[in-house]
Specification:
Keywords: Membrane, Transmembrane, Transmembrane helix. 5% of the residues lie in helices and 58% in strands. It starts with a helix and ends in a 10-residue tail after the last strand. It is globular. Strands 10, 11, 12, 13, 14 and 15 form a six-stranded antiparallel β-sheet that branches. The relative contact order is 0.12. It has one helix and 30 strands.
């Protein structure tokens, strides 16, 4: 081994040791069922949970790389990209049969100034690459002399098929002047089109939209979706709606969530009995010397999945320090409660160097079925250029928080980036006892 390679390996080893120390120190209050640190040097990985497994999916030049939670490559699925097109902005979604849908955006290198792009979907089997399929969806069209653009807004996975929802807007108008496409596009896991004979209600002026099935990977019991849209009275306020649909996308029930003083940070989790909806409210205002800033409060609402009747409303107060940004994820529990993951990025004062990254604190907090709240548990603090967080359920009452910390900016041309993946899983008790978990 050369001196240069030895030095690099030593630096990586020290970084892993430091991360391990941080993890154990920050996790003293919780007994984790699984805990790991993975060094990652590639394109930005997606985290996917398939039954009781956690996989990393990243997209290289002409190949999909599947790796286990320790970063060991399990398989490489080769794909053929259209000539003169490049791939960006990918995300991965698991189907019920173990296959993975990778949604990407294709940009034409020869027409970059015209922003010509299409959506490119890759279907891979997590156990066998031989059946890899691809499909392309044109993201723009001309109609009656007007050019319309389509932006992918959500993907709904089933056992062996999936729906893709698009936000449609006119390029000459602000995006809020568009509309939700009436019917999603449905494809099989063989990348074949499945025609639907029912329509989805058109939604105007959407800001954010997310839809889930009531049964995991099964549309037979219908859907629940959240919609954030500009208020119809043309004020600066917004509406936050929760809707229950049947299997044909027909409306069963609707409720409006109050208050509406919130940012776009919103997370939803649906179980067969319960809907957990958490968002960030900015009603509380604090002052610090000459500065005035808003202290975010995380609000969680719980509803009955059948008629959307409210069960409980819970307020989770943020820690008492200046916060620049926040993220949240929620997972519904079988007993009607939920686990919430909270990420708070610390405020950087003017003049402080930000080239080393931003410091983010991570917390897990349990909300019981009766609306009572356990104390938040600080599970980690990371400093990185950027962080991505996933909260997933592996079944059997096991919930995992995975944090992908990007430690450097992408390397020019190769777009490779050095990341550290920190994972922690815990078994959640289905009945309230002494202690948090």
């Amino acid at each position: 081994m050369s001196k240069r390679n030895f030095a690099f390996a030593f630096v990586i080893f020290c970084a892993i040791i430091i991360y391990i120390k941080i993890q154990f120190k920050s996790g003293e209050k919780v007994s984790f069922s699984k805990q790991w640190i993975t060094e990652y040097l590639t394109a930005k990985p997606n985290v996917v949970a398939i039954k009781d497994r956690i996989l990393y999916v990243d997209l290289g030049e002409g190949a999909v790389h599947l790796k286990n939670r320790d970063g060991v490559e399990m398989d490489t699925c080769n794909i053929t990209l259209p000539t003169d097109w490049s791939v960006a902005h990918h995300k991965s979604i698991a189907l019920g049969n173990g296959k993975i849908i990778i949604a990407t955006e294709l940009t034409n290198r020869l027409e970059s100034s015209k922003k010509s792009y299409s959506d490119f979907f890759i279907v891979v089997d997590s156990l066998n690459c031989s059946g890899t399929k691809t499909l392309t969806v044109n993201a723009s069209e001309s109609y009656e002399g007007e050019k319309w653009e389509y932006r992918l807004i959500d993907v709904v996975p089933y056992h062996d098929s999936f729906d893709i929802f698009y936000f449609k807007y006119n390029k000459r108008m602000d995006e809020t002047g568009g509309e939700m496409i009436t019917t999603p596009l449905r494809f099989s896991d063989e990348a074949e089109r499945i025609h639907l004979y029912h329509n989805f209600k058109v939604e105007t002026n959407p800001i954010q939209f997310h839809i889930q099935t009531v049964k995991p990977f099964d549309p037979s019991d219908g859907y629940v979706y959240t919609l954030i849209q500009d208020a119809k009275d043309h004020s600066y306020s917004v509406q936050k709606l929760l809707r229950r649909l049947d299997s044909s996308f027909q409306l069963i029930e609707e409720t409006e969530i109050k208050p509406s003083a919130f940012k776009n940070e919103l997370a939803m989790s649906v179980s067969q009995d319960n809907v957990s909806l958490c968002y960030v409210n900015h009603a509380s205002v604090d002052s610090e010397g000459a500065w005035t800033f808003k202290t975010p409060t995380v609000m969680c609402n719980f509803f009955d999945v059948e008629d959307l009747k409210p069960r409980a409303t819970v307020s989770l107060q943020a820690p008492k320090f200046r916060i620049e940004e926040r993220k949240l994820e929620v997972v519904s529990l079988p007993d009607g409660g939920a686990v919430v993951a909270l990420a708070f990025q610390l405020y950087i004062k003017f003049g402080d160097p930000a080239d080393k990254g931003y410091t983010t604190k991570y917390y897990l907090q349990r909300i019981n079925a009766d609306g009572s709240v356990e104390e938040p548990v600080h599970v980690g603090t990371y400093t990185a250029i950027s962080n991505e967080m996933s909260l997933v359920s592996l079944g059997g009452g096991e919930v995992c928080l995975i944090v992908v910390s990007h430690l450097q900016r992408p390397i020019y041309r190769t777009m490779r980036i050095r990341s550290m993946i920190s994972g922690m899983c815990l078994h959640v008790r289905t009945k309230k006892r002494s202690g948090l978990w």
